[in-house]
Amino acid sequence: MKRILVTGGAGFLGSHLCDRLLSEGNEVVCADNLFTGRRKNIHHLLDNKNFEFLRHDVTLPLYVEVDEIYNLACPASPVHYQFDPVQTTKTSVIGAINMLGLAKRLKIKILQASTSEVYGDPEIHPQPESYKGSVSVTGPRACYDEGKRCAETLFFDYHRQHKLQIKVMRIFNTYGPRMHPSDGRVVSNFIVQALKGDDITIFGDGKQTRSFGYVSDLIAGMHGLMNSPSDFIGPVNIGNPVEFTMLELAEAVLELTGSKSKLKFLPLPQDDPMQRKPNIDLAREKLGWEPKVQLREGLVETISYFDQVLREGSY
Ligand code: NAD
Ligand code: UDP
Ligand code: UDP
What we know:
By secondary structure, the protein is of the alpha/beta class. The chain has ten helices and 13 strands. The strands form four sheets. The protein has a seven-stranded parallel sheet with strand order 3-2-1-4-5-6-11, sandwiched between helices. α4 packs parallel to α5 and α6 (186-196) crosses α10 (295-312). The two termini are 34 Å apart. The model has no long low-confidence stretch (mean pLDDT 97). It binds nicotinamide-adenine-dinucleotide (NAD) and uridine-5'-diphosphate (2 copies). The site of one uridine-5'-diphosphate has 14 residues, from α6 and β8.
């Protein structure tokens, strides 16, 4: 049994990770400032004697005694990471320095939740880990993309300079239960709009693509990476390589909800990547990992979650 720190543990992915680690008999320390995370996501864990919640901002130093760190703290939805962009960069960069400093003092392994956004608006398709990316340095998404790129740099320099054990994963668009109804990302937006009978907001012409991974597959990949042989440090893509346009996603959501919502076309946000799809050969080879849940299957689960949330009015 280990004592494991999960930063961002009250968020969408972090709360599922806490569940997984606790179910294996570990102790979990969840550090989160509740910017986009919610007590509701971890409410079922608060009575668990192996679970501890710390309301903490990772831009400040943290002194705890743990055996392993998963660093997930950072808003992930464009709406939220652009709300206070300076804080977003600080969270990625200063947060990484603090968590790496903690890992260095304790001589423990640390995993970074990086992102497919390090590839920016990619000119190579699908994206392998060797692709260096096409990221705007100055645009409205840069606070997130460049923050995450700098965090990866810090992870690799702590590894080279201080011999720290690191694991870096590049997460592609992931969806599932416990996303906030106002999260702002496309899957939650479309489902909530369809269930309420509101217009489905398509940005641009809807022909841009994304590849959507279900949360259970993502957590399996993250856990597999953390526990992989020490000579494998990544970066490694974790995502579902089946690619959809936003129009196809909207059609699937309308069909599965039986909604009569209409499509409403709005301007495409600046620097919005036109295509994204992971090459997952490395994850297959090094982790024996590949996604199991197909989009429609995952959408059914996610629709049923949002349906309950909206009926309870409890968000
Ligand atoms: P989320 O917004 O639900 O979770 C992020 C969590 O971090 C929240 O609980 C938030 O309160 C917390 N947080 C933010 N700033 C903090 C700070 N300064 N100090 C402490 N806590 C802070 O998003 P998510 O989808 O669960 O994303 C989790 C991680 O995975 C993020 O690092 C994100 O960049 C990465 N990621 C997610 C996706 C995805 O599609 N879900 C894709 C790529 C990368
Ligand atoms: N740190 C922390 N917890 C620890 C050890 C370090 O939060 O247990 C933070 C501290 O703020 C420090 C940062 O991690 O500034 C980087 O630590 P490192 O040892 O790499 O560098 P330092 O700045 O201490 O020389
Ligand atoms: N998008 C959309 N309608 C929405 C929200 C998003 O058409 O209500 C589009 C957005 O422009 C982007 C894609 O869906 O092209 C994925 O957006 P999201 O914010 O989920 O993630 P990211 O752009 O970070 O991949």
